[in-house]
Amino acid sequence: MEEDNLQARIDNVFARIDAACARVGRDPLSVQLVAVSKTFPPEVIDEARACGLSLFGENRVQEAVAKSQLCGSAEWHLIGPLQRNKIKHALPLFSCIHSLDNVKLIEQLAQACEESGARPDVLLEVNVAGEASKHGFNPKTVREGVEAAMAGGLRLVGLMTVPPWTPDPEGSRKYFRQLRELRDVLEQEYSISLPELSMGMSGDFEVAIEEGATFVRVGTALFGVRKAKKWAPQSTGLTTDEFSRSLDTDDFV
Ligand SMILES: *Cc1c(COP(=O)(O)O)cnc(C)c1O
Fold it and tell me: Suppose 86 and one of 14, 61, 131, 141 were both cysteines; which one would form an S-S bond, judging by CB atoms 3.0 to 4.6 Å apart?
């Protein structure tokens, strides 16, 4: 199909962002599209750059670091869990980390930022539905996260959530609303500004925008269905697992 190309899908997503903003009287410029390029190769990212995208979201530090060296310049956000032994690899690349989910990580990140001079924006991931299987603070423990981020001098800019999966995007609305309301409460309690709400994926980003999202993290609607669990460079001759393991070693820089 002629219409089924990357540029057409990007145009479609932007049109849907604009329409969602129009429904609730928001400025489309207040919503940033994070193009979730996880599992896709650098060539696809370069194609997206040629179509005008410049902000990419990745969920694995090692994959993002490797790919960023193989494609043209872009802004990178980390949207997946950050393991503490990857902090030093993450800091030089990511301008924003959406997924801080525990106090120990926040403390170590703050220390690494102090040592390296890196100043990424950070968001706290909140598991608003309290799902046992999900990463993130819950609406009570998030205060420990806010306090740790403030104590560590991190640039805390907002909250992020991944709601329980539902086939109907309307099913996500109450969780998006809860995240926004939690943000409002935390701003009051701590006299801080938390302007960013990272919420909404391919299936529900329009609802998220109606509820106040400032970052929508969209993968499938832009790049199509992911076929691999992760990307590894062909040129290394390693399987994806071997590649990933090679990057887990300490001498990876
Ligand atoms: C993969 C991923 C996305 C994108 O999901 P799609 O449904 O493909 O748009 C968004 N957020 C996070 C945290 C992800 O891991």
Answer: 61
